[in-house]
Every structure is written in structure tokens, then in C-alpha cells.
Amino acid sequence: MGLYLVSFLAMVAIYGLLTLALNVQWGSTGLFNIGIAAFFAVGAYTTAILTTPPPAGVLLATGGVGVGGGAAGMGVGHWGGLGWPPVAGIVAGSVAAALLAIPVGLLTLRLRGDYLAIATIGLAETLRLFLKNQTDWTGGANGIGDIPQFFRGLTASGQTILFTLVAAAICAVAFILVQAATRSPWGRVLRAIRDDEAVVSATGKNVFRFRLQALVFGASIMGLAGALYAHYTGFISPDAFEPMNATFLVWVMLIAGGSGNNWGALLGALVVWGIWSGSDLLTGYIPAAWATRAAALRVVIIGVLLEAILVWRPRGLLGEDRHVSMWVKPGPASAQASTPRTSAPSTLER
Amino acid sequence: MSTSMSVDIAHPASAPAVASPAGAGASTTTAAGLSTAVPRSAPAQAFISPPTPPLLELRRVSRSFGGIRAVDKVSFSVQPGTITGLIGPNGAGKSTVFNLVTGYLRPDSGVIRLRGEEITHLPPHAIVRRGVARTFQIPREIPSLTVRENLMLAPGDQAGELPWNAWFRRRQVQAEEQRWADRADEILTLLQLESLADEYAGHLSGGQKKLLELGRALMQDATLILLDEPGAGVNPTLMHRLVAVLMHLREQGRTLVLIEHDMDLITRLCDWVVVMDNGRPLTEGTPQQVQREPRVLEAYLGASA
Predict the structure, then answer these.
(1) B193 contacts in A (CB within 8 Å)?
(2) pLDDT digits (tens, 9 = 90+) for B151-167
(3) A151: region left, alpha or beta (phi > 0 left; psi from -120 to 50 alpha)
(4) pTM for this one?
(5) Which of B105, B138, B161, B170 to mutate to test the interface with A (most CBs of A within 10 A)?
(6) From the CA of B294, how many Å to the nearest CA of chain A?
(7) Is residue B219 within 8 Å of residue B207, measured between CB atoms?
(8) ipTM for this model
(9) A108-154 pLDDT tens trace
(10) Which domains does chain B have, with CATH numbers?
């Protein structure tokens, strides 16, 4: 049970990253990204291709080219197998997702919000089908296995514990970066764009550039989450990037936790993953004949939860703070404002 | 740091002195003084116009929506340091002219120049960055930002608008934020919105939002300020304050163009008036000249009577 809790927290950290990233895009900026799975998958597949060990027998051939895999002799293989260290793979996964976001943003961010939604869900589904069908590059439906774990020579439980610590640390760093960026003038511009971009233009700011920054920054965190996920499970396949798990669950987490609030994003990941994985655990105790129906019921539970939140607590568990900038002290405007304020908050949280 | 800022931007702390806080009686004398000052500024304009190009120049600018010619070959220019009124009946195309000048709409034909440089096809943010501020006729606040942060949004080139500065140059971001917060508080005090600083801007009344629009323009270090009916919905007491603020802006050498229906306000404030009707320029001149024009009386004043 203790180990279950640890692995539970590992997934909370991964989903926490996704929810934080969505909060940058949607909560702060109003970018309707319903293709989270695409950026998540790109991060996972990038690190899988880079860090998996070179296939047996073609050790010498794979050197720098990268295309090798076991495709020649073994029927199913994939690109890469470069044996990079996992740390490099994770960085590359994050960068790859960010690079994917740039053309998506360039093509769609000038259009109205709904177009981004259509484009991102289309991208995610296209990518998933591509991963499934381009068998010799990605392993197809069989996926990619043998993705190395972070630490060698440990027991399985040791691996899980250490991984969870690393994932939690990465999530914490991401949280600090997101929090510092969104509770600053940058975040203020993003919230203003969310409300009325014409006003932001009237203050001389390039709305498109800020939107692109938010999309790419969010995508890089989504890619990071995907790469962590790949190293956590050691095996990825297109099924892991179904819209249900990889996109809509993240949306429910953000809305439940409190869109626009980074603490809320993490809380939502914890609560919703608790309900999601907890209900999965329960299906183990019911008769097999009912188990398949229970899986569908799980989706219903999440859907009802979402409805309930939207009706009774539309701002989520933790609503958005009315003040954006962490540097601004609330209080009525003082007439003698010309005297500089001496004390100012120095901590991240006001 | 706030002293260095007051050099660049209208310092509202000194504006109440212009308004002479004694009360409404004092303000009207200021206004009377201004209307007599109109002939004084006219020769100054004549002196300036040959060597210096106009700050803003429109030449045969047109824009249609479907079959409607909202703006039809409009030409006029705005001299630096003046207040120009843009008047005309509803639907005359005044707000469309503002949208064309600030890049929110693109003209079908014609040329718009700022300081002699063509800005006709620039996007709004690029025009604003060249020193133009505008307000909207129907106030457009950011409803989910506080009143104070609505103002703090306005200044350009804030270091904290880049995430990496928010991460790695926190000291600078903090210093700027304090500076702009102080500046915002000064303007809120000037506009008598100080008690609402932490309120969501979406909760303000129509008149208060109108003042917030003006406040946003004041936060920007603009040389040309376009105000679309700044006095609409503002109560009479605040109106005196508003007039004082606008006059103070001109004293600082800023150039204002305002759309206004209140002829009294136009007469008190404006050095020059451009009259539009049905998308076309009807006439232009000093407020006194324009008011005597039979065509203006017919098109505008006659229509409203």
C-alpha cells in the first residue's frame, strides 16, 4: 500500500505538470487547447527514441544516424535507440513539444479561439493515429519498450520511490517557474488577452507574440510531463495518448482545482487522479462481468463530477486570485502615493 | 524614481492645482480663460505649420462597410500641442476615423502619417508604440483585472512582460511594479477612483469605466492621445476635473484629438474643430468659426435641435 501511494504520487506529479501547463494556456491566456495529448505524446516518444538502448546486433551501425531499430530483422522496431541518458531525453522531449507548438501557434493563433481547439484536437488525433500506423518508426500499436529508468541497479520499489522524488522535484520547479511568470506583468498581459485583446493592442503590446509564448511555454511543460511518463512506465504505446486520459482528464483537473490558480491546478490533479485511480482500484473487487461496465462508469463519474463543479463551484476548489502581480500590495490608492513604498513582498506567494 | 517619471508623463499630482481646488466656480473661470485663449493659439499654429510637419495627417482616407461609405475621402491634419475636436452627428464616421488612425481598421484607400511617417497599414500595437494612445467609445476594461492592474497593464516596455525577467531579474521587475502601482494610484486619486483600486474593473459603473479608459491613456507615455467621448456618462463634478486634466495634458505639450457631442466642452477645450457628416469632412476651423457655419448648424446642431 505504501508503494501504491508512492506511485500514485508519481502520477499526480506528471498530471500536475500537465495541469499547470494547461493553466498557462487556458487559465491564464484563454487558449482553448484540447490537444494536450499531442504535446504529451511528442515528449514521450522523443525521449523513448533517444534513450532506448541500441538494438542488439546493430550496435555499430546506429552510431550517429539514429535510424536503425530492429526493423531489419525483428519485424517490429522503431527509430532511434541511441542510448542517450534519460536526463537528455527529458530535455529533448520538452524541446520537441515546444517546437511542435510553434507551427501550430503560427497557423492558428491569429484566428478566433475556436479554431485553436479544432486544430489542436485534430493534431492530437492525427498524431496518435500516425504513431499507431507508422509501425517502423514508432513501433506502431506495440509501442516502444525498454525505456530506461532514471537510476540503474536498484530494486523496483527503489526505482519507484526515487522516480517519484525526481518527478515531484521537477513538478515543484515547474510550479515555481509558472507561478513567477504568471504572477508578474507577463501574466497580467495574458489575463488581459483572455478578457479583451483589443485593449491589450491599445497598450502597444503584440497580442500574437504573448499568445505564442503562452502556447509554447505550456507545450514545453506538457512535453516534459510526457517524457517523465515514458521513463516512469518504461513502455509507451499510442493507447496511452487517448483523448480521455491525456486531454480531458487534464481539463477536468484544472476546472476542478480552479482555472487560473496554479495551486488549484496541482490540487485538481491530486483530487481527480485520486478519484480516477481509486475507482480503477475498486473495479478489481467487483465480478469480472461487471468490470468492463465499471470502466465505462468511471468516465461517467468524472463527467458528473465536472458537471457538479460547473454548477456549484464554477471557479473550482481554489478560485483565481483577483490580483495578478505578486508585487502589488492591495489597499485603497493612497493620495500620497508619490512617496515610494518601502516594504514589498519578497516571497513568491503574497 | 517617481520624479523621473513625472518628467515623461503628465504628472497628475500637479493637475489639481490647475483645476484650482477651490471648487466649481474657479474651474469655470479657468474654462473662460481658455476660450479666450483660442485666438492666442491660432497664430502660434500659423507660425508652426510651415517648418514642422503636422503630428497626424490624414489624406483622402476612405473606408466602406459593405455598401456604406463610413469614411469617405477624409483629410485633415493635427498640429502638435493642440486639442482638436472631431464632431458630427451620430454615424458621421468619427469613431471609424479613430479606428483607422490606430490600426484597428484598415483604410480602403488614402494615407495616414504620424510625424511624417506613414502608418497606414501598421497593426494597432505598432502604432501605439509610436506614441499614440486611444480610448474606446464604449469602455473596454479588463473585467477580471482589478482597477489598479487595469492601469498597470498600460505602460509599454515593462521588464516583467518577459517570463525570463520575471524569473531572473526579479529585483528590476519588483521595482518597476512598485513604480507603476504608485503611478496608477496617483491617476486613480486624480479620477476619484481611489477607493475602487482593488475592485474588479468589471464591477465599475459606466461612467467610472469611462474614467478608467482615460486613466489607461494617461498611464501611457503618449504624444498623441485620441479620446472618444471622454465625457460621456461622467458626472458634472468630475467633468470639471476632466477638463482640467485635458488642459494640463496640452500644457505639457501633448496633442489631443477628441470626439465629443458636448459643444460646450468642445468650445472650452479645442483649438481646432473638424466637422464630419455622413462620412465626409464638412468643414474645419476654430470652434467659433465652425459654430457660425450654416452647414454645420444644419447637419449637426440643427439635427440635434
Answers:
(1) 333
(2) 999 999 899 999 999 99
(3) beta
(4) 0.84
(5) B161
(6) 37
(7) no
(8) 0.83
(9) 888 777 888 999 999 999 999 999 988 888 888 888 888 888 877 77
(10) 10-139+206-304 (3.40.50.300)
